[in-house]
Every structure is written in C-alpha cells, then in structure tokens.
Amino acid sequence: MSEAQSMNVREQFGNIDIYLFDQLLKGRIAPGMRLLDAGCGNGRNLVHFLREGYDLWAVDRSAEAVEAVRALARELAPHGERISPEERFRMEPVEKMSFANDTFDVVISCAVLHFAENETHFQQMVSELWRVLKPGGLLFVRLASGEGLEDRIRPLGGGRYVLPDGSERFLADSGLLERMAEKHHALQVEPLKTVNVENLRCMTTWCLKKPHILFFDPIEERSEERLPEGTGETDETETGG
C-alpha cells in the first residue's frame, strides 16, 4: 500500500477550503499546473498540492505566515526540489507581487480580498491577481460579502462594514463582482455561490477564467529571484518592494 493510500483524507488534504476542493474534483486544477496562493496564510489550502509535487508558489504580507508555509513545504514537498522554499514562498502584498505577467495556470485567493481598505484597494488586488494569471487560467476567490445581510451590516465607509459577528470587512456584492469580471473580460466558470453562516457572515465563491487575449503590456518580473529556467520570464526590472 502506497503512502498516499494509507493516509486519511485530513492528512492528504489538510484544512482545504471545500469549494477549492470542488475545483479539484471538477478537474480544473491538475498536476503539471503552476499554482499561486495569493494571501496563503499558514498554508491551510496547500497540503495536497505540496504532497503531490505541484509547481506551487505563494505570497503573504505576514512574515510569520510565510515562514510557516516554508516549514510546511520542507516537511511535505518531494525531495530533490530545485527551487528553495525561500524563492517559492515570498513576503509580498497581494496588490504588488513580483511575478511577471501570465505566470500561473491557477491563482487562489481565499479569505483575502475582504481585508481591502476600500474599493480602490480591492480593485488593485483583483487586477494584480488577474495580471499574473495565464490566458486560459483559473482564478479562484472566496471572500466575505453582504449578500443576504443587507439589513444586518453597519457601513463604515469605503465599502467596509461591521458584520453581525463583530468583524470589520470590505464587502463585495454581486454587482461589484460582475463589474470587475466585465472590466477584465473574464469568463465566469461557476455561478456565484454565497453561504450564509447563521446570519453572522456570508462567504461568496467567485471563479473566473482568463480569455486568450492580452489587455495590458507585458512586464518582467520585479524581483532578483527568478522562476525556473525555461519558463520564458526574465528578471531585468527591480523594485524595492
């Protein structure tokens, strides 16, 4: 019996988001794809991808979170890795990542975008996720929304609200998500799905496919760190970010 066969589901998949697991079941995420977890936290969604040797990259603005993911990768990733965890898992904000355009087959952003400071910040983060996604690639987003809670949330201004559970979040409604999808000429691969948790908070799943059309000028990776040789990206432009 192989190691994978002897594992239970929790060991194999960790605390993966159930709607991200759904995308795996539907075959939209498969071995051989290059994945980015933008706002990875402690890596709750990465256990399966690390175990299966996916070409996995991640960013988070928290140094502690990034170090936790690096440690997880050292524990779970197959031996013989050519790229160090320090290169793969980077401390960067979602709205300003160092990757070149069209780098990833799948971009995951789970429970991140509702931390936007306002709508401008939200749009910056979405645009950056879209920029690094390859044409034909999948953008998977889970975020708090106000759908179904309109009479229970208290506005703070700038698109931020106090939820019934006491938390403060930027809440994107279906209208804003539709406008963002239209702005980026995105193809919706799933209907919007919103889960209401006892009228305390709502979480919406947003899945988009990037069309095979270029809508912005290419830029090169903004970091001294390079992706693997043979990917076509170079590293000529730097920033202090």
From TrEMBL:
Where would I find the Methyltransferase type domain in this sequence? 36-141
Gene3D superfamilies noted in UniProt: Vaccinia Virus protein VP39
Q: What class of enzyme is it?
A: transferase
Keyword entries, A-Z: Methyltransferase, S-adenosyl-L-methionine, Transferase
Q: What is its EC number?
A: 2.1.1.222, 2.1.1.64
A Pfam match is Methyltransf_11
InterPro entries named among the record's database cross-references: Methyltransf_11 (IPR013216), SAM-dependent_MTases_sf (IPR029063)
Q: Which CDD domains match?
A: AdoMet_MTases (cd02440)
Q: Output one GO BP term.
A: methylation
Q: Does the keyword Magnesium apply?
A: no
MF annotations from Gene Ontology:
2-polyprenyl-6-hydroxyphenol methylase activity; 3-demethylubiquinol 3-O-methyltransferase activity
Lineage: superkingdom: Bacteria
Q: Please report the name of this protein according to its UniProt entry.
A: Class I SAM-dependent methyltransferase
Q: Which organism is it from?
A: Paenibacillus oleatilyticus
